[in-house]
Design goal:
InterPro entries: AAA+_ATPase, ABC_transporter-like_ATP-bd, ABC_transporter-like_CS, ABC_transporter_ATP-binding, ABC_transprt_ATP-bd_su_PQQ, P-loop_NTPase. Belongs to the ABC transporter superfamily. By secondary structure, the protein is an alpha/beta fold. The protein folds into two domains: 161 residues, 3-Layer(aba) Sandwich (Rossmann fold); 65 residues, no CATH class. The strands form two sheets. The protein has a six-stranded mixed beta sheet with strand order 6-7-8-3-9-10, sandwiched between helices. The chain has a four-stranded antiparallel beta sheet with strand order 2-1-4-5. β9 and β10 form a beta hairpin. α3 packs across α4, α3 runs parallel beside α5 and α7 packs across α8. The protein is globular, with a radius of gyration of 18 Å.
């Protein structure tokens, strides 16, 4: 068993009288890639907001690297990297300036920051773009910059919040390959949220969320055996009551 990086217990969250999460349990180990798969409105965004500290759960607990989010939020969040669903770059700044700003927020010395920026951009094939304004990049390359930014402070947990929305198939594949590489080579634990079944195929585990509840948590072969389906898409539709 790999060391646990993220552990969430019995998470509850409601908006007024509408429950968004109902007793969600989640655990991710070092180097593990978990796909959080759910239709629109399943509660994926709410779960991400809780894991990033933007919202507080009504009940339940979240620990990142053993730090409780309620009692030690700065320590917990220090081990976290995030690529949000919406682009979060300053489009008028250069790629390098965007990355330096993030490094400054984490207190990285400039020399170390520039070394990591160079390494990160080279790893995703964007070293030659470092002085271009972010708005000059394609959507896929902007996402790669955000991935580099998310990893500058060397977090042990990476959250990818529907990060491929609006990308073409080639860009989606490249981003997925880059994240899988981080998991396999650097031991980064990753939670990849999506409603696209094909994006879950490379995950170590699949967690199916529907109407705020976890309907399945396990490997793809186990999911197929559990549902009797022939492929993950059929299993997902069956679990979420959309098979018809």
């Amino acid at each position: 068993m790999n060391p646990v990086v993220l552990e969430a217990h019995a998470l509850l969250k409601s908006y007024g009288d509408r429950p968004a999460l109902r007793g969600v349990e989640l655990s991710i180990g070092a180097g593990e890639m978990v796909a959080l798969l759910g239709p629109n409105g399943a509660g994926k965004s709410t779960l991400m907001q809780l894991l990033t500290g933007l919202f507080v759960p009504d009940a339940g607990s979240i620990e990142i690297l053993g730090h409780d989010m309620r009692r030690a939020a700065p320590q917990a969040l220090a081990g976290l990297g995030v690529v949000f669903q919406q682009i979060a770059l300053d489009l008028d700044l250069s790629v390098r300036a965007n990355l330096r700003f993030h490094a400054d927020l984490h207190g990285l010395p400039r020399r170390l920051a520039d070394e990591r920026i160079a390494q990160g951009l080279a790893a995703v094939g964007l070293e030659a773009e470092r002085d271009k304004p972010a708005r000059a990049l394609s959507g896929g390359n902007r996402r790669k910059v955000e991935l580099v930014r998310a990893m500058l402070h060397r977090p042990r947990l990476l959250l990818m919040d529907e990060a491929t929305v609006g990308l073409d198939p080639a860009s989606r594949r490249q981003l997925m390959q880059a994240v899988v590489g981080l998991c396999r080579q650097s031991g980064v634990a990753t939670l990849w949220t999506t409603h696209l079944v094909d994006e879950a195929l490379q995950a170590d585990r699949v967690l199916v969320l529907h109407r705020g509840q976890v309907l399945f948590d396990g490997t793809i072969p186990a999911c197929l055996a559990h549902t009797g389906a022939g492929d993950l898409e059929s299993a997902f539709l069956q679990l979420t009551g959309q098979a018809a």
